[in-house]
Amino acid sequence: MPEMEIVIQLITGPREEPVERTVEQGTTLEKLAAEYTALPYTILAAKVDNKISELTKPIEAPCRIEFLDMRDQGANLIYQRSLSLLYLKAIHDVLGKVPVGIENSLNKGLYTEVRTPKPITPEEVRRIEDRMHELVHKDIPFLRETLKREEALKILLGDGHKEKARMLQKSDVDKLPFYSLEGFRNFFYGHMVPSTRYIKYFELRKYRSGVLLRFPHPSAPDRIPPYVDEVLLYQVFGETKNWDRLMGISYVGDLNEKIESGEYREIIQISEALHEKRIAQIADMITEQKKRIVLICGPSSSGKTTFARRL
Asked: CA angle at residue 188 from 185 to 238, to 5 degrees?
């Protein structure tokens, strides 16, 4: 029995007008996207009736579909998430079962720490990057499975993800989404691309005690941005980590336990004291260097005015 045809409205890119067309019921978004080979950048996901969906989703009813590439923030996060799993899989293949921390944004990428007994070497970083390219060439699918709480907890503890397990133990979540590559499995809360061939652009770079996982910026989706050593930002993140250790808070689970035990007031007081000390140091620097203009930047409601008054 032939599939029923469905009328959809399709938007192929930013600032494009919707076009009406028909598709067979059950056609996946990926198959539909494959028809538009002339688009400038790789389609990573789609909005279906304004809700972001993975390309593996089948089209079952009339809807409005908008293709998303790296220029869209949602698609950019999907790329980062998929690249992170690819990176973790390559480390597992090259170095074995070692803890990896994906710490923070830095140098137009992600700063990560591979916690091996000895500091990771540039040669090991090169081997990991080579393995990532091999996996991309093999076009391995990202497989999603939803596991029940007990099974998810067992996997997290067995794979050494103690902090993720601790968060799950204190939550009322019944099911968790896991993604896997060739049997290597990890928990990711969010969408992925269909397979490794979508991860075309990335770069690994040995940096200080860790590794930079770099990828395109939304403004230029088909190339790695020029490298700029953001020394001051790296130092700020390092200072933040030291503050966290002073307060005994390295993970969200630590903060939750402090709140439950009633220690949050002490945490606030310590944070305020550290902040006041840092502002005093900045004020001394301004005085010593005889600066006449101080520029303060940050997003809305980040504390710029409050900081300016205290300074």
From this structure: 105
